[in-house]
Amino acid sequence: MKKVRKEINSIVGKNRLRSQDIANLPYIQAIYITKETLRLHPPGPIKPRESSQKCTINGYDIPEKARLLINWWAIGGDQKHWEISTSSMDRTSTPCPLGMEEKSALEQLLRCKLFRLQTSLAVMVQCFEWNVEGEDGIVNMEEALGISLPRAHPLISVPVARLSP
């Protein structure tokens, strides 16, 4: 938290942060938790797609214009699939028979959501001190059952304004 705040203060100052500032905040971009959050808790567990051409995936013949349901939750939870997805994150063009010409649907979603998460996180760090209520200020990450994997113990954090709007 201290390193992130120091970077924001030195590059942006105490003015309001804009989304354009994220490109100049390498520490915010490097924070791994935003990537992990999207991998383990995608915005939607299943995404419908349509194949743009006939293809074969893992021995299964997929006809052109077939409706497919991609289980992003299973992909994010299976390390072998995640390594494949992240290894291609920096490529500018990835052929994809599932309806996306430039990048896969997963890559596009992750890039957009990651940018928004980084901007939101930077603004929250810039504008507030965060105090965690509960057991000695330690966050319990245990999960409960449910389709969106809710927390077993609620996170109660109290924002204290650092900047005057």
Work out the strand percent.
15-25%
Shape: extended
| Mean pLDDT across every amino acid position | 75
Name given to the CATH architecture:
Orthogonal Bundle
Question: Which range best describes the helical content: under 10%, 10-25%, 25-40%, 40-55%, 55-70% or over 70%?
Answer: 25-40%
Q: What is the H level of CATH, i.e. the homologous superfamily?
A: Cytochrome P450
Radius of gyration: 19 Å
Largest sheet: 2 strands, antiparallel
Distance between the termini: 21 Å
Number of domains: 1
Order of helices and strands: HHHEEEEHHHEE
Task: Please tell me about this protein's structure.
It is a single-pass membrane protein. This protein is an alpha+beta fold. It has one domain (2-161): Cytochrome p450, CATH 1.10.630. It contains 6 helices and 6 strands; from the N terminus they run H-H-H-E-E-E-E-H-H-H-E-E. The radius of gyration is 19 Å and the shape is extended. The model is unreliable at 84-102 (pLDDT under 50).
List keywords for this structure.
165 residues, two-stranded antiparallel ribbon, extended, monooxygenase, heme, iron ion binding, oxidoreductase activity, acting on paired donors, with incorporation or reduction of molecular oxygen
Brief rundown of the structure:
The protein is of the alpha+beta class. It has helices at residues 2-11, 26-30, 33-40, 72-77, 79-87, 105-127; strands at 46-50, 55-57, 60-62, 67-71, 128-132, 157-161. The strands form 3 sheets. Strands 1-4 form a two-stranded antiparallel sheet.
